[in-house]
Amino acid sequence: MAYAVEAGEDLIPLRLQWWLDKAFGLARGLTALAASTLARKRRELEQDLDAILKAPARCDLAQALQTRMRRARDQLLTFVAFPGTVDVTNNACERDLRPAVIQRKVTNGYRAMWAAKGEADVRTVVATAALRTKATPFTTLLATITA
User: What pLDDT is attached to residue 74?
Assistant: First the structure.
């Protein structure tokens, strides 16, 4: 987006950047707002986004940015629907995936599908237990194996 703002000849990328700043501003004070205020602010953000996405774009960069935002539109304000539960960014998901990505790169992946599925199952059990009981991975695996 930064490149589109700097190199593009259209105001749409700048308007989208302002819109995202407004959305992140809402996310910072999300849990302190009443449900009616959240609903009103969400409607305002959706109306603003509608106007930006419907605006005619003269620049290829702006058109590409509009296309990407249209595809992700349903997911952009999910954090407002679940205040305090859903993070405004996907950083937590990226952090959760990182060990699996590193493992795949170090071992060059799996040759057998059963091995990949097995690791996925173990990671799922450990992650679910950590969410529910704050148990360590070793404790979770030990309890699972001895059950």
Answer: 87
Q: Which residues of the chain have pLDDT under 70?
A: 1, 4, 8, 90
| Best CA proximity match to 40, nearest among 76, 80, 74, 85 | 80
CB 77 within 8 A of CB 23: yes
Spatial contact of 26 and 45, defined as CB atoms under 8 Å apart: yes
Indicate whether this model's pTM tops 0.90. no
pLDDT of residue 1: 67
Return the DSSP state at 68.
Answer: H
Amino acid at 88: V
Closest CA to 116 of 131, 142, 124: 124
Dihedral over alpha carbons 3, 21, 63, 70 (to 10 degrees): 140
* 29: amino acid identity, one letter: G
- Residues 17, 40 within the same domain: yes
Q: Check residue 28 and give its pLDDT.
A: 84
| CA distance linking residue 24 with residue 53, whole number of Å | 19
Chosen domain end from 81, 104, 132: 81
